[in-house]
Amino acid sequence: MDSKLLAQVLKQDNQPDYRRRQVETDVFGHLISDWEQATDLPATLRARLIEHVPLSTIEAVDSGESKRGDSTKIVFRLADGELIESVLMCHRDARNTVCVSSQAGCPMRCAFCATGRGGFRRNLTADEIVDQVLHFTRQLKTVGGRVSNVVFMGMGEPFHNYDAVLSAARTLNSADGLGIAARRISISTCGLVPGIERLTDEPLQLNLAISLHAPDDELRSRLMPVNDAYPLAELLSAVNAYVTRTRRKVMFEYLLLDGVNDSPEQADRLAELLSGSPLFHVNLIRFHRTGDFRPTPKSRRDDFLLQLKSRGISATHRVSFGEDIKAACGMLATKNKPTGKDLLSSRP
């Protein structure tokens, strides 16, 4: 829902102050799918909203469900024709996690990520981010479920769109919004230090995840150009300040690339790099092919994990969802403005 358009209509119609709260209850509480369902609103206002305020700022134009049935990817078209992707992941323990996009495309150009190869087009608004979660919330309502977790790990770099991302997180968390606990909302960054510093001062207790993927500056700069601007020493300094201030655990994401970052020596360097805090946790991620890199074989992934643990590092293998529908880590890469059934089949 476009909150600015809503505010304009309510002001133009001289609606009482409580009317906006009614609308928000209808949208976020009752999860209406059409303004006509908002029967607590005057009929004249409903007609105005139908004409001037679309219930969603995004339109689902294609979808795919994994063979296991535990993940669904939706391609959304924005009002200006841009396309983004979002993923619903249904866990065995009944958690339902939505992975949202914060940008159309991405400017960060990480070598292993399909999204960045398509370039950056624009930031999303807070409403466009929230509407991704609302879409899946309405979908789950039909089977008696709810969205329990949200991760900002879809298309784009969240801290490159900080204000809209935090505004969306506040709405998702608010009792007047979807009421998702702040500790069930995670923001992943490739390492934009100013964003980490701003998050450190936020009162909202969100989870922070760092896309690390290399244990030294030379390799990380090759894989992630952002490291030239914010090398590991500066990044870790900001993360340590965050931990000191918030006492919150930080997740470090490490995509295992065959012959690139998965040697025993690199496991040792990673352990040394992250030995400074018991609140650091490493998520080892199986690479899903999107270009020239290859995934590390399972035996070496297991060895890498055991080596980290032997050095006292908290670490796990992260469960992957949706590889068969190109919904897994690093695979979201909608081309700009295709249409119809070509959307899900046109991935690189």
Question: Your description of this structure?
Answer:
Residues 336-348 have low confidence and may be disordered. The longest helix is centred in the middle third of the chain and has 16 residues, at 126-141. The protein folds into two domains: 1-55, no CATH class; 57-345, TIM Barrel (Alpha-Beta Barrel), CATH 3.20.20.70. The chain is 36% helix and 19% strand. α1 crosses α3 (43-52), α5 (126-141) runs parallel beside α6 and α11 (264-273) packs parallel to α12. The strands form two sheets. It has a ten-stranded mixed sheet, covered by helices on one side. A two-stranded antiparallel sheet has the order 5-6. It is α/β, with parallel strands linked by helices. The radius of gyration is 21 Å and the shape is elongated. Its EC number is 2.1.1.192. The active site is at residues 85, 329. [4Fe-4S] cluster binds at residues 106, 110, 113. Specifically methylates position 2 of adenine 2503 in 23S rRNA and position 2 of adenine 37 in tRNAs.
Shape: elongated
Oligomerization state: single chain
Decide which structural class fits the backbone: alpha/beta
The fold-level CATH name of the largest domain is TIM Barrel
Head-to-tail CA distance between termini: 32 Å
In total, the number of strands is 12
Proportion of residues in extended strands: 15-25%
Total helix count?
13
Q: How is the largest sheet built, in terms of strand order?
A: 1-2-3-4-7-8-9-10-11-12
Domain Radical SAM core: 92-324
EC number: 2.1.1.192
Main location: cytoplasm
Protein name: Probable dual-specificity RNA methyltransferase RlmN
